Amino acid sequence: MKRVAIVGAGCTKFGERLDAGLSELFTEAYIEALHGVDKGIDPSEIQEAFIGSMGSGGGQIANTAPLMIDYAGIPGIPATKVENACASGGYAIRSAILSILTGQCKVALVGGVEKMRDIPGERGRAWLGVGGDTEWERWHGLTFPAVFALMATRHMHEYGTTREQLAKVAVKNHKNGSKNPKAHFQNEIKLENALKAPMVAYPLSLMDCCPTSDGASAAILCEESLARRYTDTPVYIAGFGAATDRLASFSRESLTKGIATVNASSQAYKMAGIGPDDIDLAEVHDCFTIAEIVHTEDLGFCKKGEGGKFVEEGQTEIAGKVAVNPSGGLKAKGHPIGATGVGQVYEIFKQLRNEADKPSRQVPDAQIGLAHIMGGFIAAGTVHILAR
Amino acid sequence: MGVGILGYGVYIPKYRIKAEEYTRAWGYFAAPGVSEKSVPRHDEDAVTMAVEASRNAMKRAGIEPAQLNAVYMGSSSSPYGEKLVSSTIATAIGVPKDVCVSDFGASAKAGTAALLSCIDLVGSARGKYGLAVGSDCPVGRPGDDIEHALGAGAAAYIIGSESLVANFEGAHSFGAENWGGRIRRDGIRFVEDPGIARLREIEYEQSLASAAGGLMRKINLKPENFSHAVLQQPDARFPLRAARVLGLTEGQISTGLVAPGLGDTGTSSPLIGLAAVLDKARPRERLLVVSYGSGAGSDALAFGIEQGIEDSRTKAPLVDDYLMDKQYVDYLTYLRWRRVLTRDREAS
Amino acid sequence: MAYISVPSIWRELPEKYRLAVFKCKSCGALNFPRRRICVGCRKPSEFEEQKASGRGKVYSYTVVAAGATASEHAEEGRVGGPFPVAIVELEEGIRVMGQVTDCDPSAVKIGMNVESVFRKIYEQDGIIRYGYKFRPVEMTSGRQ
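Structure tokens for the assembled complex are given below, as produced in the milestone run.
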């Protein structure tokens, strides 16, 4: 089977970027990707663009894709804005892969961009709930922390997961993020402080929730046969999968299993001809600490119900059985919604080429990486397996 | 053809505030005979209480919502100055669209106004079944004496012509201009007391005496013919004085006296009192119900208890069940929930 | 900006006011809310409205901090404080979501028996949005 290669990637610092608007952020990531192509690439070689963005804040709701490529100096090519809430970036990658594999284009730009910090707090919250079932979940006053809290309460009830285990996810991710100059948060946090943080939606506290962030990311993909023209160390997409689940939390069969993750990852594993034990590092969608725990189970890194123990035992540290969120994850690296998906791929691209920003964040002997992203309450998402 | 009560139901919010909370805040409590009163939670109002009471009444009535021809709601504290809330109640209990919905307001006698209208509907054969609700939670300005007594509650009655638990035996009313009792101008949130205590007493007693006296003459009965009498209860002292004027004993009004534990529940006051009597009365006893609304008006109604009363009791909670299910709140919570302690610049 | 429109509430009154569930005439599956394509047989279908008893058990819950609620609920959060939201498994076997009222937030437990009540959910643009909530079933009093 033909494969798609990643030959360059870029990512802005995520965080409160009042210094940059949407197009400035996007261009920053794009330039890094462009210059990061080892043997060079001319912008005119890019034939199609897929850009993930949710339009949070209402600054630019429609036509984000043509606007971004206009400012990136590559107007005119087919460009699509992809939106599936937090999984926008993952689905943008999927769309680019499909375009290349069907022969529609040979070189594609994928990216993502989001501006969340320009608007005041209460208005920002008005935008955050938009990925849930507005009429049947938001109606009751919920935004996302509350929906994931329903998962946490149930997971604690069914498997005995503790708040300490949840907090350990945050502690680990902040530790990783403190070594990542691109991360929103550069500080480590202590477990006892994490446990004292104010409640947002019981049992999730402020320390269990990822931030809202500004940021952008970009990557250049091409068909396998062209990869060596651009670099001697391309990273290939060895397998990919995508799935959805019914949206409202009360419509789910199980509140403790994300079947979209199970289905998307099993497609990707099958295509790549590997299993969970072969994965060296994974960037996983930890919008809330409980999510990382559930995803490590659903991706097959540990048994169902043992995700709490798995992180507690250090199995997901940089040097652990599988390094989960070496970038700091959504929790510490940040979550500019449309940009997160390609940001995960940026991290894995760097790690697999032994180029993580600081030596201590480099996953030792990284051969195969997995990018997992889910939109909303694990309602739509993708899994991409990357390998050298 | 007989007309009367087919089913009845009440709703009283779970929360109470004690007189002591007022004494601590203001040095005294200005609602004689009231030891605690009911407080609606912040997510309750006259409409939500009316729906609960109506659902309870439907359980006792044993008819389908589609059989109701009218839904009449009487309140002095509807959250809307203009928008029917009787339609909200009708939809919440599943009444289909060909129903007469009317809101009665503007005084504490709007509950009996709704009740009488249902009785007229069925009595004139314009409809077969009607739902009348008195639901109220009036608000006063903190610090005004008249605020001290203001409580919350609802009572609903399904009126029909067969299988009755209480037969309607007659009504008489009083209406005359006065400004003795509560007054609230349109657009103002808080009820106010014009301040002439004696005028308030006169208005109240004259209204009740005239309506009740006229009824007794009309149906040729004397005060002692009534086993129970329920009088409008702005506090627990007003009805005691009025009873003397009407020639009733304390014993006759005691079963229906709910103000000591609830305060002034406005339009629902005589209707909750009536329900308290229906919870205990025996077949063939006779009841008198007299409402009063400032401005002024009063409706007096007579009912005779039927055999079916005992069976109907178990189908929905009793007044005592609601009275006993309570949780106390402090004065700050009370002010916050009643939205008088607020960030809004216009609190009035 | 997410906004629940007045017409959408008007279309959804049976569910929001009466906790009505809809039974598929082809396969008998319960749908909440009503749809055109049944969640059970996944075919376009006809439905009949059933009145849910309103009784059920808490399947999962959270307690939303007043400052973390959707913005249109901010006022209720300020006045009422943190509030529980639960997924309730109704007697009829279907799961729905609702706030839990008349209850100390720390008292909510998985498996708790609840019954539905009619309350104010929030107010926006001068229109009060009413709907069902749940409250714990009192075993001691005669409340049914």
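Residues 74-80 of chain C form the longest helix (7 residues). Chain C touches chain B at residues 13, 17-18, 20, 51, 76, 78-80, 101-102, 117-121, 128, 130, 133, 138, 140-144 (CB under 8 Å). Further analysis is deferred to the final report.
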